[in-house]
C-alpha cells in the first residue's frame, strides 16, 4: 500500500513552520482550543496532515479589507470617512 500525501502526518513543529505560526506552543494552543484541525495520535501527541495544514492556512488568512458603502453611512460618518482618506 502506498501512502498518499494526505495520509502522511507531520508533527506540530513541522506544521508550525509550514503554516508560519509564531511557535509550536502557539499552534498547540490553537489545536487544543479546536480552532485549527489536527489529530491526536497518543497522549499529548498531536499531528497534522497536509489537508489540515492547508485548512489551517486558509482559516488564518486575513480577509481583504473593504471600504464600507458610503450610501449606507450617515452624513457624519461619510464626512469623517472622507477626512480619513484624504
Primary descriptors:
3-stranded antiparallel sheet, 4 helices, alpha+beta
Q: How would you portray this structure in words?
A:
With 86 residues, the protein is α+β, with helices and mostly antiparallel strands. It is 45% helix and 14% strand. It is built from four helices and three strands; from the N terminus they run βααββαα. It has a three-stranded antiparallel beta sheet. The longest helix has 11 residues, at 50-60. The protein is rod-shaped and about 60 Å long. The relative contact order is 0.15.
Summarize the structure.
The protein is of the alpha+beta class and 86 residues long. Helices cover 45% and strands 14% of the residues. It has four helices and three strands, in the order βααββαα.
Range of strand content: 5-15%
Percent of residues in helices comes to: 40-55%
SSE succession: EHHEEHH
Q: Could you give a short account of the major beta sheet?
A: 3 strands, antiparallel
* Secondary structure tally: strands: 3
Rg of Cα set: 20 Å
Arithmetic mean of pLDDT:
85
End-to-end CA span: 63 Å
Helix and strand content put the structural class at alpha+beta
Low-confidence stretches: none
- Overall 3D geometry? rod-shaped
Number of helices: 4
The largest beta-sheet arranges its strands as 1-3-2
The assembly state of the depicted protein chains is single chain
